[in-house]
Amino acid sequence: MIALGPFVLSAERFSAGLGILAFLIAVAVLTRLAGRGPERRATQAVVLGVIAARLAFVLANLRVFLEDPLSVLYLWQGGYLSLVGVVVAALWLGRKLRRMPDQLGAFAIALILGAASWNTVRLLAPEPGASQLPTQTLATLDGGP
Predict the structure, then answer these.
(1) A GO BP term, please (predicted)?
(2) 26, 85, 122, 125 - which has most CB atoms within 10 Å?
């Protein structure tokens, strides 16, 4: 868990959010001379990727969601298959960038920056329960607990 003032986020969500933010900022900075087209496409790719990641999670756990269909809409509770979202967003962007080959380098750099920030935060965040001491009682050298 990562605490930002009164807000507490899981490390997974925080790292994904930071990676997405880094990607969108990098696209905006690297393509600022090209107009609003590239930024709009990047935002559309992110939204499409998030939707695909959620739908993939729902389909993977369909039995659970059939019991309570409205829980599909509980987006704040997590439940995303990130890899599916990234692949869908990348395929969609690749299709759109065929019409804009001059922007391919900028998008590749932005994607690398986004993925690097996502992975860095994910690796630096503590594992859940990693700071808990074991409950096992050990013996000292003199035989006491």
Answers:
(1) lipoprotein biosynthetic process
(2) 85
